[in-house]
Amino acid sequence: MRVHVRVTPRSAAEAVRLEPDGSLAVRVTAPPADGAANAAVTKLLAKALNLPQRDIVLVSGASSRNKVFELPLEEAQLVALLARSAKKR
Length: 89
Fold this sequence. Notes:
single chain, alpha+beta, five-stranded mixed β-sheet, 2 helices, 5 strands, 27% strand
C-alpha cells in the first residue's frame, strides 16, 4: 500500500502517529539535509512496523515534508502495528 507521510525534521523526539485521514505524521530528530531525515523516517517506520528497512520504499517527496512511501502492508495491518507500537512506549 502507499501511505502519505508528513515529516517534521529536527524534532525533540521521534514519533509516528496515524492521522484520521489515514496518513502518517512522523517526527524525527535528524535534520533535513543530505537525506538524513529520509533515512531517519525509513528507519523509524521499519522499527514501528516491525519491517526490514529494505521493504519501505520512498516513492515521492524526497526533498519535501510531504512524502509517499510504499509499504508491504494492508491498511488494517498498518493500523494494528502502529497501535501495538504505541502501547510499547
